[in-house]
Amino acid sequence: MSGLGRMSRVGALFATAWLLASSVAAQNGDGGVPRTAWGDPDLQGIWNNSTTTPLEQMTEAEQQRDRDARAPVIAATRGTGAAWPETGGLLERPSLIVDPPNGRIAMTPEAIARLVVREKAREGRGEADSWLDRNSWERCISRTMPVQMIPNLYNNNYQILQTPTHVAIQIEMIHETRIIPIDGRPHSSDRIRQWLGDSRGRWEGDTLVVETLHFHDRLDGGDYQPSHILQTGHRGPGGTLRIVERFTRVDVETIDYRFTVEDPVTYTRPYTVAIPFRWRENQEPIYEYACHEGNYGMVNLLSGGRADEELALRASALVSRQRREGGHPGVREPVVPFHAEPEP
Question: Structural domain boundaries of the chain?
Answer without folding.
Answer: 46-159+188-326
